[in-house]
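Lecture 7 notes: from sequence to structure.

We start with a single chain of 178 residues. Read the sequence below before looking at the structure.
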Amino acid sequence: TISELIKRLSRMSNQHSSNLLAPELDNWQPDTINIVVNTPAPFTNRVAEIFNHPALRRLKKAIALGWMRDIYPGATHDRWAHSIGVFSGLVSYYRALLADPALPTLRILIDNSDLEHAFIAAMLHDLGQTTFGHDFEEAFPPLFSHEEIVLKLLNDDYFGKPTLGQILEKYWPGVEMG
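Now the structure, written as tokens:
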């Protein structure tokens, strides 16, 4: 519509704040979690609800580097920390792209639904993963697919209520899961 076009074109000015698209883009977010050096992840209430859900917190026990920690004892990276790092990196990329004065293309074209889908994908991309998960997938793909497990875990009440899917519906209603 014309009104949508005018709204999007107004994003070309340096007066536009990308914080209006998603609260996670606010550089002055009061709650953060430090995973990546110099890049704290915004820990808004809706982000905290996801990362603190037991279905995702179980990833703290899933070692991301497998046997590498036997060779490099300091390599203690788990999949939960990795997921926060991916989310933090994605937020940083979006902040940089949206702030680029020379290329306003993303500011004009993106909407909050695009951002929310990307944020959820970053946070949940390893939800169905386990230690040695990629090795299992490579060795025998029909036996293990972490992508299929993600869809099952979203609505599984094994980890209690609300399910992760219910949290997504409540805090991220524009994100389609499935």
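The chain has a mean pLDDT of 81. Keep this in mind for problem set 3.
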